[in-house]
Structure formats: C-alpha cells, structure tokens
C-alpha cells in the first residue's frame, strides 16, 4: 500500500481555508490534515509588558495544538493532555525562530493547529502549515499598519524521520510511525540550519551513523516543504493585492 | 449588504469533509461554517449498561459543540464555557429525537460540532449538519453489521428566527443577531412537528402574535433545510455503494 | 394522590426566610421548596465597567442555582453540572427582563436559588421566588440611597407545563414530569408578554395545536403566580416601613 | 446590645425543616442558622469494602459543610475553601465518635451542614444540629430494616468558647469572635468526656489557668445543648410513631 | 524496638540543607524527616495591601505542607488533599504567633515543609523546623536591610502526645500513632504559653485528668525542642557572621 | 567564577538519602541537587492489564519531576506546569530504555525527581540520578522475590550541552544556560548509543558542524557520569548484602 520510496515525502499541499483569523490554511500531507490559523492581537501576555508602563518593544508568537474528535478512528476526547502540551511548546519555539520579535512590537500572534485527520506527522505538519498562517497574519498586520517592517527572518519547516525495519525513512505516516524503532522530528530554517532536533529511541537506541542518515533525509525533505510553503505564501500575497 | 428577504434562508450547503470519523460533513450557511463529525463506538456510558451485566437494549446519541480559535475575528479561547454546554445539550436532545434508540442497541454515536467560522446561527447549523453526519454514521454501522435495522425515525433540522427592527426575520447572521429584540431557535422533524422551541426576549418581551409569526417563518426555513440534508445523504449513500 | 385539575397550580406560597442577604424568601410550590436570596453589591463584573474609568452607567442582575444535598431522596452531590449551569443562565435572563438596568447604575444583584426540596418545577419556582427577593433587594438599595428610582419595569414569573398521557397539564410535579412527553417552561411578564419559551419534546414531537394549548395553560398559571408575588412584596414593604 | 452573661448560651432551638433526606433539622443559635440533613445510602466509599467481595462489616458517617451565598452580609461565593474542608473533617470526626460503626454495617450516612445565616459558632452549631439529623436518619434506617440495633453510643454536642477583653466567654457570636484573643471549640459526649478540643491563640497565647477556665465554660454549655438535642429527638420519635 | 520512656522525645536534630531559599533546614525526629525552607519576598497577598496604594504597614507569614512521594512505603501521590490543607493552616497560624507582623512591613515569608520521611509527628516537626527556617530568613531580611528590627517575639515549637494502651505518651511515631486512642498536637511559645491545642479522640473520648496529663507531657517535650531550635539558630548566626 | 574547562563536567556525586522508597539517592551536580526516589508497586496502570484478566506479562517504569519551592531564589510555586510535564515524559522514556519491561512482569516503578536546588541541568541530572534509584529498586524487587531476573539491559545517563558565546560547552549551569544560543540534552546508554537527542536553538539556529561538536562533548560527559552511577550502585549493593 505504501509504495513511496524511503526518501520521498507524502503528497503535500497548503491551501486556504475559511476562517475569521488573519492567517488560515489547511495543510494536507498524505492523509494527515491540519487546520492552521493565526490570530492577530495586541493583548500581549502580562509578563511581556514593560514594568514602566511604556509601549512594548517586542511582540510574541505562541501556538496551540489540538486533535479534533474525529481525527482518529477511535474518537479523540477533547481537552489537553501532556502530549499536546509538549507539542504546542515545540511548535511555538520553532515559529519564534522564524521571526525577529523586535520587528513586531506590541503584536501577539497565536497560531492554532487543529488536527482534522491524524495519520502521522501531525506535529511537523503543524509547524510547516502554521508558518504559512503566521506569514499571512504578518502580511495583514503590515497592511493594517500595526507593524512597519517585515518581521520574518527566515522560513521554517519541519518533518519527521525514523528508522523502520532497520531502514531510515522520511515522513512517517501512522503505520510506519507505530513500527519505527527511532522517531525523530527535525525543524530547519531557510538557511539550512537546525532549529530543533528531537530524536527518541522508541525501541532500540541508535548509533551516530544512523543519526547522520536521518539528518540527511530530513534536510532533503524540508527543502521540498519550504518550496510548498513559498508557493502558498505567493498565492496569499497575490489575493491580498487583488483584494485591494 | 444584507439583501436577503426577511423570509429567505442564507445560501446553505452540506459537503463531505476529510475525517477519520464514520460521519463527516461541513455545513455552510452564509459565512457560518461548522465541521460536523459523528464517531461510532460501542463504549456506552456506564449508566446505560444493564445492571445484570447482559447486553444493552438501547443505544445512545450524544453531542459536543466547540468554537475553534479562529472562528471569530477576536480569537476564541479554547475550553468549554456555560454557553457551549447549554448548546451541546440542545444539539444532543434534538438528534436523539430523530432516532429510535432501541433500534441501535449497544451503539454510541458522538456528534462533534466544531465551528470553523461563526457568523450567527451556529447552534442551529450544528443541528442541521450533525443530523447528516449521524445518518452517515448509522449507514456505516449497518454496513458493518453493528445494527440490523435503520434506527432513523424522521430527519431533524433547526433554524434561528428573530425580531429585528420590529420585523420577524429568518436565519439571523451575526449582525442581525446582535440587533435582534427576540431570538428564537426552532428544531422540527420531517413530519412538521416541533422538537425544540427556545425563544428568548433579548430586549423586549413579545406577544403571542409575534410568536406565531416567528414559528411560521421557522417552519418554512426548516422545510428547505430538510431538502438540503436529503441531498447530502443521497450523495453519501451513492458514494458508499460505489465504494463497495 | 394527585387530585389537582390539569389546569390547576399546586398550592404556592412565598414567605420570608432568615438570611443576611438584602432579599430573602422561600417559595413553596407543592412539595418543592426553593430558598431565594438576593445579595446587593457594588462590585460589578469587570466587563461592565466603562473603559474610561468613569462611573458605571448601568447595573447588573445575575443568578446562581444549586440543588442542596438533601433535596432529593438519593443525596444530590454538591458542585455544578451542565444542567445547573443552563438553569442559572435562564433564571438570570428572565430576571433581567424585569428591570431597567440603566435605572440601577453601579449596582450588582446576585440572586441565589438553593433548592431545599426538589419535586418538579424547581427552575420555574426559582424564577418566581427570585423575582420577589430581587424586588426586596431593590427596595433596600433605594432605602440605602444606592439608587434613586425604582428599576423595576414589570414583574416576571414562570411555570412549567407539559403533555402527560396525551393531555396538556399545568405545573408538573416530579411524577408528572417523569411521564411527560413534552416539557415546556414559560416565563412571562406583568403585561402578558413572553420573556422565555422553552419547549422540549422528551418523547414525541408536538404539533402546533398542542403548543398553543400549552401556552394557554401557562398564561393562566402565571397570572395567578403574579398575584402571589405581589402579596409577598406588599408584606415585605409593610415590614420595612414599620421597621423604620 | 449583647446582654448575655459570659457563661450564658445564646437562645438555641433545633426544629424540623422540609427535606427529602432521612434526617433534617434547622438549628438556630442566636442569629446563626444551619440546615442539617442526614442522607441514608448503602453506597459505602470503595476503601471500606472488604477485599474479598463479601458484605461490609462496618458503616460510615461523613459530613459536608458549606456556607450558603446569603449567609453573610457580603455575599459568600460558592465552592469549597480550605476553611470549609477543615470544618467538615472536624464535624465528621465528632459525629463518628457518637456511634458504633460496627452496629450499622453497610450503611453510609452523609450529614450536610448548610449555613443559612452565619453569626459565629457555625461549626459547633453544625455538630450539635447534625447529631440530631444523624439520630433521625438512624431511626429511619432501623425502621426500614437496614440495621438491627441502635448504633448510637452516646450523644455529642459542641460549643465555642473564647477569651474576649481578657474574660472567658461562652458561645461567641460574630462580633465577639472577631474580638477574641483566644478561640476554642470543644466537643463532648453524653458522658462528659472530650471528643475534640481545638484551641487557637488568635492574638495572645494563653496560660494553663485560662485553658481550664475555658474548658469549664464549655462543659456547662454543652450540658445544656445535650438537653436541647434530646428534646428534638423525642419530638422526631413521637412524629415517626404517629405516622405509622 | 521502641525502648523510649513514655515521656522521652525521639532523637531530634535540626541541620542546614542545601537550598536557594533564605532559610533552610532539615529536622529529623526519630525516622521522620522534614525539609523546611523559608522564602523571602516582597509580594504580599493582595488583601494585605492598603487600599490607598501606600506602603504596607505589616508583613505576612504563610506556610505550605506536602508529603514527598517517597515519604511513605506505599508511594504518596502528589497534589494537595484536605489533610494537607488543614495542616498547613495550622503551621502558618503557629508561626505567625512567633512574630510581630508590624515589625516586618512589606515582607512575605513562605515556609515550605516537605516531608522526606513520614514516621509520625510530621505536622509538629514541621512547626518546630519551620520556626528555625523562619528565624534564618528574618536574619537575612535584616541583613539585606529589608526590615529594621527583629520581628521575633518568642520562639514556638510543637509536639504530639497521645494515649496509647491507656498510657499518656510523648512524641508518637507512626506505629504508636496508629494505636493511639487519643491524639493531641500542642504548640507552645518560649514563655510556656499555649499557641494551639488540638486534641482528638480517635477511639475513645477522654476525661479531664487525661487531658491534663497530656498537656504536662507536651510542655516538657516542647521545652527540650526549644533548646534544639536555639542551638540551630546560633549555628546559623555564627555562619552568617563568618561569611561576611 | 566558572573556571571549568568547556569540556569539563561539574563535580558530580550520587549519595543515598533518607526515604521510605525502595530506591533513594540525591544527585549533586555543581550547585544543582535532585532527590531521586524509586517506589515499588504492583498496581500497574489499567491500560497495561491483559483484557483476559490473566497476570501481566510486562512491567512499567514511569517518572514525575517537580521543583521544590525553595529550589530557586524566587520561590517556585507548587503544582505542575507544561515544562514539568514535558520533562517527566522525557525522564520516563529514557529510563524505560534501560530496562527490558518483560523481565519485570507486574511490577510498577515510579521514579520521583524532586529538585532541591536548581542551578541548571535539572532534567539531565534527574535522569542520571533516577537511573541509580531505579536500579536500587529493582535490586529490592529481586530481593523480595517480586521478579526473577535482572531487568536492566544497559545503564542510561544524560547531560546538557550548549553553545555559549559561540563555543560548545558541556554541562551548563544556570548562568551559562541563560546565555546559551543553543541548548541540547543528550541521553545515552552504556553501549554508547543515543536514547534521546533534544536540541533547541534558543537564539540562533545551528549548522551540522556545531551539532556534531555538541554530540562529541555529550558523549565524553556521559561516559564519566556512567562511572559515577556505577560507583553508587556498587555501594548500594554492598550495603544491601551486609544488611542481610
């Protein structure tokens, strides 16, 4: 059934989806679907406000991640759990690595990643999709005059890799993920640098050579995801200009 | 901007959406969008199980309702509130009026209504959409041999009506809803009977004549929604048969 | 045992009860007993305060509803549930329909309805009793000089009606309520207008004629409840004047 | 205003109150009013059930304490706090000292103490009143054949004492309690023995002589409370016999 | 195994322990071990702040108590329970009786008592140990110039006593505590006055003579604990001076 | 002040600490101190029990992590947060990589890591210390006859590495951690394989060469930590044998 090559990404698209938020896309990666919205606000968290009551000199990007009840064959109960908490901390960290927070003073962007269908790789698809929603929201913020300059420093995208049946494989779907001995999530930026590397030995620990093989696979996959993101952002820009 | 006649529904469609659940549609009513999924299970709530340990003689239908964070221009915080609790109790009650629970022994169906865009009428759109997801899930249950007979007794649909600027109006969008003096949600079945009538004087109390005018409007609107539902269910049946 | 006529109210009294709150009555309707107190405060909820820091131009009325542990033969566990949440939202909406909030600027009244004995109709008895406690608390507020004019616009009262064994019945006690095919709660004001209509098909949906019969019964019952309220308020005024 | 002698109890009565619970009284001690109900059940807490699945050899008595929202001039928010938790643990311990749990196998009695008006001494009034409700519930349990013998070993009652303006005083109301340097709650049984002694130096620590003077006052007050309890129980027995 | 005399304390030491808090000791009493830290802060609880926005005229001392998971042979689940809540309220009350809060304006000290090994008497050991941590923290506060004068009025210490096999016993370890018919916790100050007396009949109520015998035992034990505290404080002062 | 070489561990010891748990050590790494206990139980989590009611064929290892209130100069509030949740998931995953769960059927070991002093590297010190407590608890389990064979497959230890001022540094204390551009936690087993690699770009993303340099540092540091663990376990075995 899975006839992909080990170093091949699943078919991936990033499309607009109806929303009231400033940024809003649905990323499809194989069967996995994540609705990513980016909401714009000026209500910074209290700890970011200067003590002297003056205007904020920085902005902030945060993220939330949730699985929708229909995302799994056995209904997923609503409400956060420790896995979700860990994932949304990861998403937010990576997104913040894409922007210069000082170039978006006083602006809060909350990226919500709601998994419509979970077939593996939801946390990395969330990062890849949420970056596009974030970029759209920042375009809107500039358009509204909330910020002067483009705060984006470099795009970020993420992919999962793993060792399955002893072979390094790119972009694990759920059946592969369940059988993986090693599971690694890698986030990189547009300059080919690492933003986050999280490798876990599920079954058997792994040696340095295997780690290197996984990093090579991830790098190639992320390169292709950055292209998909770029296309989606150009489309959004085009629509925004035509809407004026 | 709102050039609908007072007795006209907003454009309404019910389309399939990707999901791992047995039933899965997105209902669009004007700008409002609700993702409705229906998950199939045999884990009945403990209070439904016979005390003697024998097999359950009835099934159950329940519902959950949530607004997604990007559903409103100002981001909607996740997590239940009292309004949501009240709405999901309403949805579940109406859906249960559509089925004969004794014809689905041991089967639990949970209908999840997640509002993607909130532009008024989300609770009634949830009912109308969730009924279709429920019907799909019951088809699947029969297809899998979990139940023998069709438990559906009659379709159900719902619509909001209200008094705006002194005039009775059908299917309030958000700007109309905010200005309504009276807000009423009506759910009816395929036999033209009431399943639920909830009328609230937001600004001014209303007399019997106005109540009657609102009920007339609702009846006409629900008639048209039942047709949209029927079309969506026929499409689903058609796909299911071709998939065999 | 139940020898009432179908269109007869259960015996209903509204008496003072010891309390430290400004308004305080116990309503008895058949076996049902609800302790209704109305507490006076100037701590408006934050969202009601003007953004400019100036004085509030309106007041607020809110309500809480709870069943006391000994209110049912099987002890009722403390702590809110979704049913209670829905009921207290209803009570508060109806009470607010009785007053002109702009005539009570800066004043918050919280009406607490604690069910001492639950034998059906606790939510409508709560409304009927809490209106009296609210009126007492407003008298106290004027007496203390917290408000200048009487904010009451019209009294409000509520009653339950239902279809039992195929017949429309007024003021359901618990045994009737359990057997009702349709259960409807109606709140009306002193001008004979509807404030809230909530009809639910528990067993079988209902046609328009039945709805009309239920509304007729409710109107007659509420008329009599308004008289009981008026007597209780006159008593309270009389005591207050004599206490001076 | 307070013209009681330092060694005089406030006027105290224990009267029946409407309830669906097996035991149900209202105790009035000065302005303080507590509704005490005792609910009968056979649902023992899981930790009391024998591991071998056999029948329970003991019963249990537990208690809950809450202040009703209208019990204080400034409305009391609902929901437990640490003070309430501590009080209900105390009430339950003292009530259990009144009974032989082995003479009520498989029976759970939950005593609920809901403060209607709080004017000092609510925890000790709760104990004194709840004992009567407990005794009523045990009468009912015997009457229903749930237990064979009377589990009551000795009555229990409680009172507060304190040092105010340097003088030992019995049964503190709220104004006295606020000014007390030492606050002590004493619970004793019908044999003149201590069940609980809780003395706290609010302002100044106290020497042995003062402790003894407080214990003397408490002993005399509890003696009178035991008589009030006895009268209330005899009334309840009389009604129960006449009801047969 | 327990060869102590009935009026003998278990071996008791109070030693420094590594910490980032201003005060930090471990008290060992027999096998029982409690880590007591006292953290210094100027964030007074909101209810202590003067309404006029001026500087606080008083300080505050509060306490928290928790059993560490490894403190009992069967692992102790984390998270507060009602027993812990009651204990920490007791600890805080007794510690506040040691200081003049007006001599520490604007200073908050939080004493944390974490039980490393629980072998009976953890609440009284917590009081005895926490007083030393509190005294250290106040030394630090003076050293830092946060307060001018020594706020300590008198030391406080506490011990448990009980009736076991009919005999009054000092300082109950867990096996003794389990078998005690009466359990009493006594806190006294350096002037031989009572700060708190909490006696509970676990099995059998107790007469006045027994109460007096227990108070005599407690007084002698607390006298010895005050000496251990004094030694630990002198050591801390000595180290602090040498560190300058 | 920090005169360590960049590739030098902080002074590290693992010592026994008083506890009622089967395994119990305190690890000190520089100023950081973590109390690690391992509690033995046969209460497996419900999801591990075979559906057929037969005996469990596997055991389980879980972990909890908490910072004690006095662990930081500004008092750390009790109660879990998302950071703690993420850390305890990491600790548990790494510990499970050390054992063959099928060689400890029916046994649950809960490792608690309570941070006494937090000066950087608390999560990796928790892993290193908890492994020793786990090993002790397994020795006890064998000693008690709860398991037959040694379930340990390989030891595990962890260390943090990071890039500070552009240089790769081993074992970051708090001041170094705050200034680190990249922060990486590495866990390895006794065969030199990776169990977990978690690298995060705090400030600037990092290239492959830097990643490799960090991995080299971690490998050397973990080698030395495995020796410290081995010494602590030999001591524990020695004591256990002499205690027999």
Note down, in words, how this protein is organized.
- Six copies of one chain form a homohexamer.
- The first copy, chain A, is of the alpha+beta class.
- Chain A has one domain (12-243): Ribosomal Protein S5, domain 2, CATH 3.30.230.
- The first copy, chain A, is 32% helix and 29% strand.
- The first copy, chain A, has a five-stranded mixed beta sheet.
- In chain A, a hairpin with a 4-residue loop joins strand 8 (180-189) and strand 9 (194-201).
- In chain A, helix 1 (82-96) packs across helix 2 and helix 2 packs parallel to helix 4 (208-243).
- The longest helix of chain A is centred in the C-terminal third of the chain and has 36 residues, at 208-243.
- Chains in contact: A-B, A-F, B-C, C-D, D-E, E-F.
- Strand 9 of chain B pairs antiparallel with strand 9 of chain C, so a sheet runs across the interface.
């Amino acid at each position: 059934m899975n006839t992909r090559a080990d170093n091949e990404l699943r078919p991936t698209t990033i499309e607009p989806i109806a929303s009231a938020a400033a940024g809003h896309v649905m990323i499809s990666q194989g069967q996995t679907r994540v609705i990513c919205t980016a909401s714009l606000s000026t209500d910074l968290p209290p700890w970011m406000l200067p003590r002297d009551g003056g205007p904020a000199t920085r902005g902030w990007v945060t993220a939330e991640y949730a699985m929708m009840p229909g995302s799994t064959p056995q209904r997923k109960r609503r409400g956060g759990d420790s896995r979700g908490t860990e994932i949304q901390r990861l998403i937010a960290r990576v997104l913040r690595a894409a922007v210069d927070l000082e170039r978006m003073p006083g602006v809060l962007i909350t990226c919500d990643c709601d998994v419509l269908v979970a077939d593996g790789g939801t946390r990395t698809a969330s990062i890849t999709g949420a970056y596009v929603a974030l970029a759209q929201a920042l375009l809107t913020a500039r358009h509204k005059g909330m910020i002067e300059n483009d705060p984006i420093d470099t795009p970020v995208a993420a992919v999962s890799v793993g060792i399955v049946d002893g072979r390094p494989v790119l972009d694990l779907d759920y059946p592969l993920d369940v059988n993986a001995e090693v599971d690694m999530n890698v986030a990189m930026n547009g300059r080919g640098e690492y933003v986050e590397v999280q490798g876990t030995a599920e079954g058997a620990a792994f040696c340095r050579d295997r780690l290197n093989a996984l990093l090579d696979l991830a790098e190639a996959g992320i390169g292709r995801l950055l292209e998909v993101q770029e296309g989606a952002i150009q489309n959004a820009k085009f629509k925004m200009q035509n809407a004026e």
